[in-house]
């Protein structure tokens, strides 16, 4: 492209950086739930307006509840556009419940738990 053709089309550094910054505000939910709970989470996502569904990412991982905080941090570090990171787990299956909540809060991760089970959330 000749110099004359580029004249006036060059972007400033600020304009170029803005183009590369991903949109913030995505919700990233990491859960260790079973298949039925996974279906409830996807059902929740599918029940919100279509324009918001893309901002909710649900990752169901096979790990112990004790590892959820670290797994959430690892997964979110791969995709830093997630504005709010959440872990959700069953309260009745966890012995060190308070410790997990403290770990998550220290790392800036939001926590949700079901007590006695996730089905109660959606049937309430």
UniProtKB/TrEMBL annotation:
Superkingdom of origin organism: Bacteria
InterPro entries: RloB
Pfam families: RloB (PF13707)
Protein name as annotated: RloB-like protein
Organism: Ruminococcus flavefaciens 007c
């Amino acid at each position: 492209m000749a110099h004359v053709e580029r004249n006036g089309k060059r972007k400033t550094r600020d304009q170029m950086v803005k183009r590369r910054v991903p949109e913030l505000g995505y919700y990233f939910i990491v859960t260790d739930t079973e298949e039925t709970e996974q279906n409830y989470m996807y059902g929740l996502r599918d029940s919100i307006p279509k324009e918001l569904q893309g901002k909710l990412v649900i990752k169901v991982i096979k790990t112990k509840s004790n590892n959820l905080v670290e797994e959430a941090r690892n997964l979110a570090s791969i995709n830093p556009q997630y504005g709010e990171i959440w872990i959700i787990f069953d309260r009745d299956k966890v012995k060190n419940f308070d410790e997990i909540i403290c770990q998550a809060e220290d790392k800036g991760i939001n926590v949700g738990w079901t007590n006695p089970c996730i089905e109660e959330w959606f049937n309430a």
